[in-house]
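ok new one. same drill as before - structure tokens go in, u give me an amino acid for every spot. 123 of them this time. try not to just spam alanines like last time pls lmao
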């Protein structure tokens, strides 16, 4: 079964994502900050990570850079979750190295379509 790690410090984001993804048959892991994300990614090797930007201890951009710099986790597909109106320059996007960006709030249907597309194409 494919594993998805949802990293966000807001339960109002984590719970609906977890519910819809579990309902579609994915194993869902959660973390509430960038430090936990790195530990879980190393230990569990998820197929996909939804990674919030604004979190305590280590933000999503920093966590993504570390994931992509580590040979053991660099192939994990990372979707950065950003707040509406937060835009990165092309240079910043290159530095962060996320595979994709998704703006909050998002439709659960779009999330499932995106996950199915990514995991079907990559695995």
């Amino acid at each position: 079964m494919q594993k998805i790690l949802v990293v966000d410090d807001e339960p109002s984001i984590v719970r609906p994502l977890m519910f819809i993804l579990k309902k579609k048959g994915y194993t869902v892991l959660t973390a509430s900050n960038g430090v936990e994300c790195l530990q879980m990614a190393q230990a569990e090797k998820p197929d996909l990570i939804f990674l919030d930007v604004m979190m305590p201890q280590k933000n999503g951009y920093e966590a993504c850079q570390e994931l992509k710099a580590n040979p053991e986790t660099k192939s994990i597909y990372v979707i950065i979750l950003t707040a509406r109106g937060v835009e990165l320059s092309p240079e910043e996007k290159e530095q962060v190295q996320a595979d994709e960006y998704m703006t909050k709030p998002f439709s659960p249907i779009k999330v499932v379509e995106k996950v199915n597309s990514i995991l079907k194409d990559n695995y």
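The longest strand covers residues 77-83. and btw Residues 108-122 form the longest helix (15 residues).
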